[in-house]
Amino acid sequence: MTRYAWVRISIVAGAALILEILCRTGVVPRLIMIPPSEMMASAWQILASGEIKSDFYFSFVNIALAIGFSVVGGFITGLAIYSAPVLRATLEPFLTSYSAVPPIVFHPMLIVIFGLNRAPQVIIAVMFGLVPMAIHTISGLRRIRPVFLKVGRANRLSRAASIFQIQLPAAAPYIFVGVTLAVSYSVIGVISTEFILSASGIGHQISFAYDNYDNRTMYGLVLLLLATATLLNSSLRHYSQRMLQRWTR
Amino acid sequence: MKARQAIYVAGFVALLLILWQGLFLLFGLRVLTPPWSTFANAWNMLRMPYYWPDIMESIRAFVIALLIAFGLGSIGGILIGTSRTCSEVLEPLLVNINTIPKVALYPVILLIFGLGIWAKVVFGALHGIIPIMISSIGAVRNVNPIYIRSGRAMHLTRWQMIRLIWVPACVPEMFSGLRLGFSLTLLGTIFGEFFASQKGVGFLLMNAIDLRNIPTIMALILLLVIFAVVCNSALLAADRRLHRRQA
Questions:
Q1: Percentage of residues in chain B with pLDDT exceeding 70?
Q2: To the nearest whole angstrom, how far is the Cα of B229 from the nearest Cα of chain A?
Q3: pLDDT one-digit tens code per residue, A13-57
Q4: How confident is the model at residue A87 (pLDDT cuts 50, 70, 90)?
Q5: Mutation test of the interface with chain A: which of B23, B87, B111, B227, choosing the one with the most A Cβ atoms within 10 A?
Q6: Long-range contacts of the stretch B94-100 (C-beta < 8 A, 24+)
Q7: Predicted interface score ipTM higher than 0.85
């Protein structure tokens, strides 16, 4: 680990320590926040008791579905846009302003169409995650050095061989950046929709605990969720940066 | 090429409208209203005084959130960006915070700021501030060192350095971050109104969902989409102009 990483860890640890002191001394009332040590204890209890195992499972399946659809769909969309100039001219203005409309506004309509089940949540999460995946697929394919393609042509590779042996491996690190984004957006999409209109899932459990003034459970769940998301995102990012470095060396 | 692209885009929009009408024919009024009457409903909504207090509440919350996100985000980003150590330490931390589901923090914000307008303002600003900070750090760090060296060679004063070199070199990239921050702040503010709120467009939307009032849901969604797309197109045009001038 680098020196900077240690500084980062100590900043986070220091912030937690200050929060702990503020909560213990009563500067921050218990009704607003419980000390971080109690959050951790509560998170551990939730894990050990297994009381919301079904909610974890529900969210997990939704997130996995959303990731699958956004990665595969985004890749296919990106590939199609890259290879068809007509599609590129048509869809590019929409892609550049994709984040303008929060997909969450379509949630009410999807609920009316599909009902209160996992479909609306997965669809919203896919709307969040698919576009960054498509954008990074396109930019990855565009960045391929022309000399790679020339070598392929000099070796008389077929079109398919050129795609599978040259273009995709060359674009892989950038496409993987898209995958990491698709993963984090899928998590955000699923948890957000669970939060407002759902009867199960971690997001729902957090808002349920909030509605019942059950701060201990709420903070435990928030901590668990944030820790899981951070672990997932940072390991993917670490891997993707290693991939980029290996390529540019 | 430009004219042809406009035709393609118009064709795509027409296709979406046809698809919308098709969905209406398939599902009927129970699920969605057709495009034409949705536009009419949205227009009526804007003319009725009944909705304006909520619309104004959302606009007020959004504007305050945007000012906080723009101000703190760009100042914080510039301050962090000017120190190498600071940006090396903090940037990965910010990127990580950016990818966590911030909804999980919304109850915490509600507990701290109460049920009024400030909870949504803070939640909206929280969504926008980090992308703006990250892009400001990038903008400051990516200034071509040649510009700075030539500025020093010409013995520019500190103020001249800022006015003639730092600002023109950083603004285009920072503006791209502001554009992203704009959309995310809108998302955060509307989302803040979905949950535990008594006023605002998000609240109206939630209310309409509870009442299964499809025409209102559709009209509100349409208004939000139009607002977002119009603002974003304006920002995108400004963004492109800034980048072209720099190139």
A1: 98
A2: 6
A3: 898 899 888 888 888 887 788 888 888 888 888 888 877 888 888
A4: confident
A5: B111
A6: B94/B130, B94/B133, B94/B134, B94/B137, B95/A237, B95/B134, B96/A230, B96/A233, B96/A234, B96/A237, B97/B130, B98/B130, B98/B131, B98/B134, B99/A184, B99/A188, B99/A229, B99/A230, B99/A233, B100/A184, B100/A226, B100/A229, B100/A230, B100/A233
A7: no
* Superfamily in which the B37-246 domain is placed by CATH: MetI-like (1.10.3720.10)
At CB < 8 A and 24+ separation, what contacts does B40-49 make?
B41/B215, B41/B216, B41/B218, B41/B219, B42/B219, B42/B220, B42/B222, B42/B223, B42/B226, B44/B219, B45/B216, B45/B219, B45/B220, B45/B223, B46/B223
Q: How many residues are there in chain A?
A: 249
Among residues 147-166 of chain B, which lie with CB inside 8 Å of chain A?
Answer: none
Cβ atoms of A202 and A56 within 8 Å: the answer is yes
Of A112, A195, A233, the CB nearest to B31: A112
Q: Is B214 on the interface with A (CB under 8 A)?
A: yes
pLDDT > 90? residue A65: yes
CB contact at 8 A, A186 and A63: yes
pLDDT tens digits, residue range B151-173? 889 988 888 888 888 888 888 88
Query: Do A102 and B190 lie within an 8 Å CB cutoff?
Result: yes
The CA-based diameter of chain B, rounded to the nearest angstrom, is: 72
What is the average pLDDT score of chain B?
A: 86
Reported pTM? 0.84
What is residue B245's predicted lDDT score, i.e. its pLDDT? Answer: 73
